[in-house]
Specification:
single chain; 221 residues; alpha/beta; Rossmann fold; three-stranded antiparallel beta sheet; 8 helices; 46% helix; binds adenosine monophosphate
Length: 221
């Protein structure tokens, strides 16, 4: 059995973290932990916390560090994370990055790499505003760059219902980019100081970026 791999995927919203995390998960069989997906699941619940999260996600505001750190810390204790995990969207603030360092120390494990996927803002806006997913299997599509082979039918599972994220609109994306610059960007130099940082150009095709990430992680062809 191969050694567990524990990876942080970071970068601006829409840089392709989720897509690349799913590719890695399918390729090496480790858990994909997306804090955004976890929060969206909470936000579906008709509870005070669910309603509060729904409203802040729609505005592109961050959830509290305390909530996110607790959520991630207990999630990585679960059985499916024992073989490794890919953190997608966490840490998003410096306090979260510091908490992650403490969490891994306490659990007596270590991180193998933090990979920043770099994409300029103009491309990000176009990518986010055009993206949508199959409502059944979650396969990702784009109005211009990746249409289903048959109009209105998911290539992967044949479903005909598709969804767009409520926070994928121009104003919310602007807020998410501002938050990224102010709050998340400092975590990149934090990972650099820990000697874990690798940067990849994410402007090419999904396959090209996946290959760069696989090379960084030393994954066999
Ligand atoms: P994502 O799916 O990673 O784009 O995340 C969607 C939204 O969830 C973000 O715009 C934030 O509002 C929230 N979110 C996701 N991860 C975090 C985090 N680590 N800390 C705070 N808020 C988060």
């Amino acid at each position: 059995m191969q050694k567990p791999l524990r990876i942080v995927l970071t970068g601006a919203p829409g840089c392709g973290k989720g897509t690349q995390a799913r590719i890695l998960r399918d390729r090496i069989g480790i858990c994909h932990l997306s804090t955004g997906e976890m929060l969206r699941a909470y936000a579906l619940k008709d509870t005070p916390l669910g309603r509060e999260l729904k409203a802040s996600l729609e505005r592109g505001e961050f959830a509290t560090d305390e909530m996110i750190v607790d959520m991630v810390s207990s999630r990585i204790d679960e059985e499916d994370c024992q073989n490794g995990f890919i953190l997608d969207g966490f840490p998003r603030t410096l306090p979260q990055a510091e908490a992650l360092e403490d969490i891994v120390k306490q659990k007596n494990i270590s991180l193998d790499a933090a990979i920043e996927i770099q994409v300029p803002d103009e491309i990000i806006m176009e990518r986010i505003l055009g993206r949508y997913t199959c409502a059944v299997c979650g396969e990702g599509y784009h109005d211009k760059n990746r249409k289903p082979k048959i109009y209105g039918v998911c290539d992967k599972c044949g479903a005909t219902e598709f969804v767009r994220r409520a926070d994928d609109n121009r104003q919310t994306v602007k807020n998410r980019l501002i938050n990224y610059r102010q709050l998340t960007y400092p975590t990149i130099s934090y990972f650099e100081r820990l000697g874990l940082l690798h940067c990849v150009d994410g402007t090419g095709s999904i396959e090209a970026t996946a290959k760069k990430i696989a090379d960084i992680l030393g994954l066999a062809k």
